[in-house]
Amino acid sequence: MKSKTLRDILSLFFFVLVAISAFGQNTPERIHQDIQKQTAQIFDSLINIRRDLHRYPEISGEEKRTSEKIAEYLIGLGLEVKTNIGGYGVVGILKGAKPGKKIAWRADIDAMPSKAPDVVDFESRNEGVRHICGHDVHTAVALGIANVLSSQKEQLEGTVYFVFQPSEENIKGALAMIDDGLFDIIHPEEMYAMHVTPFPAGTIATKSEEMFSDYKQVHLSFQNVTDNKALIAFAKRQIRGLENVAPESEFWNMQNMGDPELGIAAPNSIYTNFTTVEKNNFSVAETENKVEIRAFLSFSDKKQRDSAIPNLKNRILASPYADKLIKAALVDVFPTLDNNEKLVNASLAQLSTIYGKDKVLRMYGVVADGRSDDFAFFQPKVPSVYFFMGGSNYEKGIIAQTHSPNFAVDESCIKTGVNLFSSLIVERLK
User: Fold this and answer.
1) What pLDDT, on the 0 to 100 scale, is given for residue 7?
2) Is residue 303 part of a domain?
3) Does the pLDDT of residue 258 top 90, yes or no?
4) How many CB atoms are located within 10 Å of the residue 48 CB?
5) Domain stop point among 290, 311, 332
6) Do residues 203 and 237 both lie within one domain?
7) In CATH, what number is assigned to the domain containing residue 296?
8) Would you list the DSSP string of 224-256?
9) Of the N and C termini of the chain, which has fewer Cβ atoms inside 10 Å?
């Protein structure tokens, strides 16, 4: 009798142990540990992919080899793959074993015309073309995420779309993919993207709403007057008068955007509440009937942008040229990134919990240069977030300053990107 009771107790004990063990395997913590383990295992191969893409860069509209390499890799992972969308665009579709949301991740794949010498050993073999904007890194990270999440397919909830976009540098690729039926192929509820930046490697950053300043061109047109020269000088003064940043401000030293006390990731950032004017970049056209004056402006927020034309009109209407004004308007130049506030807050909270607040930065300011990213064309269609990913290692002299001749990347950021963004997608699928 006692022996049987003992056997029953032991059986129950081992059953509980097995149950606990099985339960532990499905905890959120275990999933993110597995992500990090898989990322570490494929890290060297991702570096090789990045370096191969770097050796054979292709400019906007000519990404044939790049797209073939991407499609081949995704097919090898077992994903459903669609090609030649909006040019050389590629889409990979990963369906998890469990029901859930639909999330899209976008990576741009094109390179830039440049004759500047490469600063790395794996230099470009395509004359006059370089990856000096980091899209080779973006592609490697996206392929890494696809690999990691494929390995978690049985635990994965929902569907992940991997969108590899061509022609970002000429601001044509996003619209081309949309016009070619991208959103007939994919149906995401949320969409994410990132860009490598001079932030330190090992970090990512984002913010709600504008990431870059809103870059516009102001158009003023007047009827001809007796002294058009005086009219033009007056119009230029009024446009310049919209600028609200003092000439002596530290704002104008663009290196300060990364400053821990003043920069875009600082709570007291000086890169907020600004309107700037490219004062030396006016264009003037005179015809038989009218004179037109144009200039470029950057705005840090919608309120200042929306008040610019009313302010200009008020000044003009109070001047001797009031009855000569034909038109005053702001015209789009580049798309403006406008992150979804709810998704930003959720993403930062989830990633900070998993990886620590030292790796996940909230931006407070906006990049003063508004020439941003055509990912902005996707944002009106899908709630979305665009991240900055640090790629610099200042101790080693590696500065991921995009579009610069000395652009270089600490490749450890690939591991950071795959880890954090794989974890983010897993959390957002729930």
Assistant:
1) 56
2) yes
3) no
4) 12
5) 332
6) no
7) 3.30.70.360
8) --S-HHHHHHHHHHHHHTT--S-TT-GGG-GGG
9) N
Spatial CA neighbour of 110 closest among 169, 51, 177, 56: 169
Task: Extract the tokens encoding 154.
Answer: 């049985």
* In a shared domain, residues 112 and 166: yes
Q: Which of 170-179, 306-315, 363-372, 377-386 has the lowest mean pLDDT?
A: 363-372
Q: How far apart are CA 125 and CA 133, in angstroms?
A: 17
Residue reference for tokens 């990512």:
204
How far is Cα 258 from Cα 40, in angstroms, rounded to an integer? 29
12 lies in a domain? no
Q: 121-128: which pairs have CB atoms within 8 A and are 24 or more residues apart?
A: 122/51, 122/54, 122/55, 123/54, 123/55, 124/54, 124/55, 124/56, 124/57, 125/55, 125/56, 126/56, 126/57, 126/58
Tokens 């959103």 belong to: 183
Length of the chain: 430
Query: Are residues 230 and 351 located together in one domain of the fold?
Result: no
Name which of 260-264, 312-316, 327-331 the model is least confident about: 260-264
Q: Express each pLDDT in 260-286 by its tens digit.
A: 899 999 999 999 999 999 999 999 999
Considering the domain boundaries, does residue 344 fall inside one?
yes
Specify whether the CB–CB gap between 212 and 300 falls below 8 A.
no
Residue 21 inside a domain? The answer is: no
CB atoms within 10 A of CB 9: 10
**Amino acid 26: pLDDT:** 54
Sign of CA dihedral 53, 54, 58, 59: positive
Q: What is the pLDDT of residues 103-138, one digit of tens each?
A: 999 999 999 999 999 999 999 999 999 999 999 999
**CA–CA separation, 391 vs 417, rounded Å?**
10
Residues 57 and 173 in one domain: yes
Give the tokens for residue 241.
Answer: 């008068």
Tokens of 207: 């913010």
Helix (H/G/I), strand (E/B), else coil: 110 = coil
Distance CA 116, CA 405 (A): 6
- Structural domain total, the chain: 2
Domain that holds residue 199: 28-210+336-429
Reading the block at residue 157, the tokens are 């909830």
CB-count burial class (<10 Å; 0-12, 13-18, 19+) for 412 = middle
